[in-house]
Design a protein that fits this description.
By secondary structure, the chain is mostly beta strands. The chain is about 15% helix and about 50% strand. The N terminus is likely disordered.
């Protein structure tokens, strides 16, 4: 009987260790590359280099855009910019990422919006070139467009 109890205890301990290892294992990154850069021109706030950072969990994806070259024409409160980033899909069509997430941005400070949320399918290849970023601030729409394909290449989701 004692042997049976030890066997059960050992099996439970092994199962607990395995479950703990799975819980602590890092999640696989499904999108590549994780970051890309673009050059953008905006209707207000100038233009220049911007960095896009992507994440993916299943069909849910987020993209954050940050730039020190695209600047705020006025001071902006946290989460006050309604943003839609439309990405061109290879093979045609677009995918939109939306949200109202942004840090507080001082007058003349670099703009960061996101994470903006969207839905992707396995195999989607998305590029900011051919799309746009629309930011609505106090009812005024600011549109930014990329002047060339993002580098090092489009975001590919799996």
């Amino acid at each position: 009987m004692r042997r049976k109890q030890l066997g059960i205890a050992a099996a439970l301990a092994a199962g607990t260790l395995a479950a703990t290892g799975l819980a602590l294992a890092p999640t696989a990154t499904a999108v590549t590359p994780l970051t890309a850069t673009i050059n953008a021109t905006c209707t207000i706030g100038g233009g220049g280099a911007a960095t896009l950072t992507a994440t993916q969990t299943g069909t849910a994806a987020t993209i954050t855009l940050s730039s020190t070259s695209i600047t705020a024409p006025i001071a902006l409160a946290k989460d006050s910019i309604a943003s839609t980033l439309t990405m061109a899909k290879s093979g045609g069509g677009t995918v939109a990422f939306t949200g109202t997430k942004n840090p507080a941005i001082p007058l003349g400070g670099g703009v960061t919006v996101g994470p903006l949320s969207g839905t992707v399918a396995s195999g989607d290849s998305l590029d900011a070139y051919g799309g746009s970023l629309k930011m609505v601030v106090f009812g005024i729409t600011i549109t930014c467009t990329a002047s060339a394909a993002q580098a090092p290449g489009p975001f590919v989701f799996s």
